[in-house]
Amino acid sequence: MTADPRPPAIFLMGPTAAGKTDLAVELTRHLPCDIVSVDSAMVYRGMDIGTAKPDAATLAEAPHRLIDICDPAEAYSAAAFCRDALAEMAAIRAHGRIPLLVGGTMLYFRALEQGLSPLPSADPALRRRLAAEAEEGGWPRLHARLAEVDPVAAARIRPTDPQRIQRALEVYELTGEPLSHWFAQSREAALPVRPVKLVLAPADRGTLQARIARRFEAMLAGGLLEEVAALYGRGDLHPDLPAIRAVGYRQAWAHLAGEIDADSLRERGVIATRQLAKRQYTWLRKEKNAAWLEPGADIVERALKYLSSAHI
Fold this sequence. Notes:
This protein has a 6-stranded parallel beta sheet with strand order 3-2-4-1-5-6, sandwiched between helices. By secondary structure, the chain is α/β, with parallel strands linked by helices. It has 14 helices and 6 strands. The chain folds into 2 domains: 8-116 and 193-309, P-loop containing nucleotide triphosphate hydrolases (Rossmann fold), CATH 3.40.50; 124-184, Histone, subunit A.
């Protein structure tokens, strides 16, 4: 079989709180890599603590591309990520270095590797109407409507997931075709790099859940509420924005709005993060040709050994 002639790019994937950033920084100390963030929340400025964004010292040693590129009032899509990531990888390769894509937004990885369906752009007026209908009757009612026009998409989307329900109904109303139809049109893109995939994920879910709980407590102690309060005080943001729907931010926003108390904030923040990790595992199990790595003291050596076997 003919070897893949494309230059390599490392895809370092894994659930939240698995330690991906630490491993990525270590890899840059051994390999000529530049990091590209694959995180749908780290793109937003002023959202540092709740996204576990690398601190200034880490960024000084190992700069991360595609963080702090959007205002929280803006929406950032998988299509925008593909455009930006391809440009960053081209710039990295032009300097004779290896792109190291790191993050847990699995949709972005999948879109980059497989391409995107030709979905219509967002329609602000339609989104406002759907949001108004949801406010009056609840998102489960809109989910029931979605089940009538697109049962395949409805089976994948939880009745409590407003962002995806809204998008699926929006696509149907704009095109007359269900979202599942458009996803079926997706085709593999001519990715200009050869992905070498690493999945950093504890085999024991209990280990990850304990890490998630400790990290969320550390975020609260480190000023997460103060960070969200600054966003809340701007006056131009609201809880339906993608940035504010991010895990941790959504719960902190609800606390600041007087909807939940401090104990509920902690409990819901941890639960939401665990649910995110569960969804990430579901995506990760479908990844082909990926090397799964158990976190541990020798993780760097094991990662480097696998990358060497992949001719990096």
